[in-house]
Amino acid sequence: MNVELGYLKKNYHAASGDPEPRFVSRLTKNTYAMVLAGGRGSRLHELTNWRAKPAVPFGGKFRIIDFVLSNCVNSGIRRIGVATQYKSHSLIQHIQRGWSFLNGQFGEYLDLLPAQQRISEDQWYQGTADAVFQNLDIIRASKCEFIVILAGDHIYKMDYGKLLAFHVEKKADMTVACLEVPIAEAFAFGVMGIDENSRVVEFVEKPANPPSIPDNPEKSLASMGIYVFNTQFLIEQLIRDADSPNSSHDFGKDLIPHMVEKYRVFAQSFEQSCVGMGDDNTPYWRDVGTIDSYWEASMEMTKVIPDLNMYDQEWPIWTYQEQLPPAKFVFDEEERRGYAVDSLVSGGCIVSGSTVKRSLLFSDVRVNSYSSIEDSVLLPNVDVGRHVVLKRVIVDKNCKIPDGMEVGVNIEEDRKRFHVSENGITLITPEMLGQIVHSIR
């Protein structure tokens, strides 16, 4: 590691850009990633009635968890654990089908770690730190020098190799990846106060008066819930926390405040490890944890040049998808023309004599004649009848929209049948339509 560290100090901040891949891979190959994917995502309302938030479909063909797992694989981290808890069957099934390509013969694997009451027969995962603590034997068995803790429910592209290199360069015990956010919005995050060397000197959870960045008084550093630890240090801290009767066993509430006071904790701005910036040179990161934020992030994908580049072959997003025929658009009559504009249309879809504008159609969606879909997200296996109007809606998987239905035209009428968000986005599920669905979500 001394030779590598010397190489890092010489080359990591060189004007030519990143260190050579061989160097980064030495760090990432010696890293175990623990993805925390057990959250319900209750602010997504009925969209998470039958699935965990990381299993929610996103981007036309992916699921939310595909982004963090793709970041791991693309960064060279190929020893991964995924801790699940809430309604995890569809999430587990997706991972088994889509992420089985890691080869155990080369020390690559993905561990599925559902809550199993491994520590106590009356205790599931009690917090983010406890979810890791209950899997300490698996972390030890990995024999990795570094542990990366990741949330499984955010949309972003990040090179964890750069974060690890920063961690080693700073000789840190722990490193936190952070977003730069306007100081007026920082009250919703855990906020880092840092010195001129990026060392964390203060951590406050959802502060009324958040600390600012030393050279930018208008912004604060907000934790992304992405942490790098030296493995032995993490094990010691988790055991100490587990023995504390007053702890809620959460990284943000308990472990980080304790460590900041006594150990070398550093913060790295997301700009330094983000893969692909937006047009305004702002790193792309989205928490699609509400109906409105999920819809807004989906609509961003329909732009001519979206901030998130899913066509990047150097940093691809991996997923599981059935082998489906190409999307099909049929009929070319004056009142019955099948076409889509500024939209993403996945395999297996048929747009039959209808118009689709600024929308996302997931796999196997059928839109029948004389219908109009605008500013909407249709999840897999949705069947839209004839003469239907859908505007600013999210339609859950397996819904069958009956002929002549109009949603998004009269909000007050929609509230009587469906869930309507604060910003007027309507969520439609099979249960709301009185339909019984037996398939896995």
From TrEMBL:
Show the GO MF annotations.
Answer: ATP binding; glucose-1-phosphate adenylyltransferase activity
Q: What is this protein called?
A: Glucose-1-phosphate adenylyltransferase
Record's NCBIfam families? Answer: glgC, PRK00725.1, PRK00844.1
Self-association and partners: Homotetramer.
Q: Which organism is it from?
A: Gallionella capsiferriformans (strain ES-2)
Span of domain Glucose-1-phosphate adenylyltransferase/Bifunctional protein GlmU-like C-terminal hexapeptide: 325-428
Annotated EC: 2.7.7.27
Give yes or no: UniProt keyword Nucleotidyltransferase.
yes
Mark the transmembrane ranges: none
At which positions is alpha-D-glucose 1-phosphate bound?
Y125, G190, E205, K206, S223
Q: Which Gene3D superfamilies match?
A: Hexapeptide repeat proteins, Spore Coat Polysaccharide Biosynthesis Protein SpsA, Chain A
Q: List the Pfam families.
A: Hexapep_GlmU (PF24894), NTP_transferase (PF00483)
